[in-house]
Q: What sequence folds into this?
């Protein structure tokens, strides 16, 4: 019998089944306890201080009570506070990225993923460095600066040397005014030594979805292959941090297990990273299971409604206010619009989930043969950027923090010191100007420059505002790029 211990390095102790079950029972018991709920909501609210806002976050138990509550007025308050936190720390900026699939060779047997080894009718493909160059140029031509590279787990076809070579190639390509300035990596759990190599290759965030924190289900859902090892997978982030990677990204695949269990689990994981490494996860992703080649999501019993999904996002925002939250094109426009106000800080746009899905295709064409899952939001990046701006958001292509060494707790310090408006906001506006100048349609460009003009006025420090204005003027009149604070 394992005891709950957030400081332990053993998966069964920091993600403790007994503690999760007790949390769920506690949440059920208190879900209509108005006095307790009011105290929890008060704790979650951002508090204004002289320099900015401070948020204390919530424990997994507190946040689980909010998630369990079905009082309509409580839900309303949760959504409202989530929006307040989002505006206090992230403002109206939304960071843009795109996934880049390198290889769908995989030796695992994941029951929800079409890349599983036994799927013999899906073509297997691995990008050569030349094909990768074409993909990267196509992505640069769309306007992307930040990628998340994805690959199946296959030590023979996709060894770490292949991944490192790809990262090197991606960073080396400078097509016209384009370049990829941050490569996040979503590959299978690996060794400390390999994480160190990824760190040395200059990656941004190391992302690994837990899929499910429910060990028994995890073992059934991953019947074969190295991913079957629940403890090795769950302890991966500790190895990544030991290997020098400061920014790690968590996620669960909603639909595989009961969402309340997953919710408590992911928050416990965040608390564990904070307890052991002094810094929580850089991001949390909230993917939902989708239809894919030989995968029918209806065969899984734990699908969640849009309403519950939105509440999960809001409750995560209250619990871990300093952690970025990512939503992919697995979600449609309507859901994306809603959750942008509840705490999402990063979204993908114009995504292709197939190997070689960008080069040689028009924005309307979409290859399906090697796709990992169906994409719900099929709009082009330009359409997504325009839509964001029309809804009052500032699409940001900024990658400054990690390039200026503001990773891990240094990024959190920036959040807490109230300097975001003097730093992230001008960076967002300058990178948006690059996008408008180099890649946007005339209509998007017009809307964008009007927005930039308005948003520049929000920068509190006069000197910073002046520099930002000058840099944007330079971007418009020359090929000078990559300004940052
Ligand atoms: N192979 C890597 C690993 O083992 O962690 C990760 C890369 S995989 C390409 C990225 C993520 O896609 C997986 O972690 C999983 O959560 C998600 N995924 C797999 N099948 C999916 C499906 N049918 N619908 C939605 N997401 C899916």
A:
């Amino acid at each position: 019998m394992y005891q709950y211990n957030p400081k332990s390095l053993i998966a069964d102790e920091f993600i403790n089944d007994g503690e999760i079950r007790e949390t769920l029972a506690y949440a059920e018991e208190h879900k209509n306890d108005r006095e307790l709920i009011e105290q929890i909501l008060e704790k979650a609210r951002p508090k204004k201080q002289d320099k900015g806002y401070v948020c204390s976050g919530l424990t997994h138990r507190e946040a689980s009570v909010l998630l369990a509550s079905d009082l309509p007025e409580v839900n309303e308050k949760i959504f409202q506070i989530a929006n307040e936190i989002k505006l206090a720390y992230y403002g109206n900026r939304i960071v843009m990225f795109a996934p880049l699939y390198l290889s769908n060779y995989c030796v695992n047997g994941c029951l929800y993923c079409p890349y599983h080894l036994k799927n013999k009718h899906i073509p297997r493909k691995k990008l050569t460095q030349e094909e990768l160059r074409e993909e990267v140029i196509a992505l640069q031509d769309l306007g992307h600066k930040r990628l998340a590279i994805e690959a199946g787990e296959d030590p023979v076809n996709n060894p770490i040397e292949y991944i490192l070579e790809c990262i090197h190639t991606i960073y080396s390509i400078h097509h016209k005014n384009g370049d990829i300035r941050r490569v996040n990596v979503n590959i299978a759990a690996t060794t400390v030594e390999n994480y160190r190599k990824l760190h040395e290759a200059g990656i941004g965030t190391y992302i690994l979805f837990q899929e499910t924190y429910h060990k028994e289900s995890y073992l059934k859902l991953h019947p074969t292959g190295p991913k079957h090892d629940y403890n090795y997978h769950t302890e991966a982030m500790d190895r990544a941090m030991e290997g020098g990677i400061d920014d790690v990204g968590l996620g669960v695949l909603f639909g595989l297990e009961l969402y309340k269990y997953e919710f408590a689990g992911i928050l416990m994981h965040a608390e564990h990273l904070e307890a052991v490494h002094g810094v929580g996860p850089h991001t949390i992703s909230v993917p939902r299971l989708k239809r894919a080649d030989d995968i029918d999501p209806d065969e899984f019993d734990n699908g969640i409604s849009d309403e519950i999904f939105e509440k999960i996002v809001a409750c995560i925002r209250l619990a871990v206010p300093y952690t970025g939250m990512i939503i992919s094109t697995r979600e449609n426009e309507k859901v994306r619009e809603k959750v942008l106000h509840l705490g999402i800080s990063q979204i993908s746009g114009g995504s292709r989930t197939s190997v070689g899905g960008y080069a040689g295709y028009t924005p309307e064409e979409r290859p399906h043969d090697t796709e990992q899952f169906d994409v719900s939001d099929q709009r082009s990046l330009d359409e997504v950027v325009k839509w964001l701006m029309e809804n009052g958001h500032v699409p940001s292509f900024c990658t400054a923090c990690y390039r200026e060494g503001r990773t891990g707790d240094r990024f959190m310090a920036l959040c807490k010191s109230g300097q975001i408006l003097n730093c992230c906001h001008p960076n967002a506006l300058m990178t948006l100007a690059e996008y408008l100048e180099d890649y946007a349609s005339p209509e998007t460009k017009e809307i964008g420059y009007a927005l930039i003009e308005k948003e520049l006025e929000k920068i509190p420090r006069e000197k910073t505002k002046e520099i930002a204005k000058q840099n944007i003027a330079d971007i418009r009149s020359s090929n000078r790029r990559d300004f940052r604070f």
In short: The CA atoms of residues 24 and 260 lie 7 Å apart. The chain has a mean pLDDT of 95. The pocket of S-adenosylmethionine is lined by residues 112-113, 150, 152-153, 186-188, 208-209, 211, 227, 253, 287, 289-290, 292, 295, 330, 372-373 (CB under 6 Å). The radius of gyration is 22 Å.
